[in-house]
Design goal:
CATH class of the largest domain: Mainly Beta
Number of strands: 10
Helix content: 40-55%
Order of helices and strands: HEEEEEEHEEHHHHHHEE
Shape: elongated
CATH topology of the largest domain: Jelly Rolls
Distance between the termini: 10 Å
Amino acid sequence: MTNPPEQSGRSDELLSVNISRLFNALLPLSEPQSLYRSGSFIMDSQGENGIWLLTEGRIVIRRRIDGLILASQQAPIMLGMAEFFLPTGQNFYDIEAVSPCTTHVIKKTDFMTVVNRDQLWESVAVVEAYIIQVMSQRDRLITSRSATDMVWGHLELLQQEPEEIRQRISAAQYIRDRTGLSRSTVMDTLARLKRQGAIQLQRGHLVCICID
């Protein structure tokens, strides 16, 4: 189940405003880096190099133990804050570029100085709340749900992805990367939904969802 359009729109606007405030303050003290290596990991979750400001491109967050994709994110977004505020000393996640990405890295000491000086802690809280919501949405999609519910929920996510992503990856692979469901289960469910007229697929790629 997705959020009502009005609620989602307000959340997106709030995130955009606060990301802009943070980027405007932090970018002057950061160092740019291009991070496109298709299929490879570009940063570990400890954020040892500081806070990362993703200004261009798209990334996915993978669980390191099994490579399961937990979330995908389009720029602009900030990475590395969780480990900064509550260090675990362990690498639970990896960040992977799925398109050409440009980031700016700011040292942790500079981050603290700027956020304190410009009173940006509310903006930091908004960004962290957004990230928590993204991860919580993923939990809602896979916890105590049937395979059909899991497939349907991820089809809704896939429909929201940019056209470039939808053309690059099949619906079955997108779902398997994010759920751990077997190939046969995913393929059988997609075939049934297609027969029912609930979705349209072309060569395995999602064209559209036909019902709400």
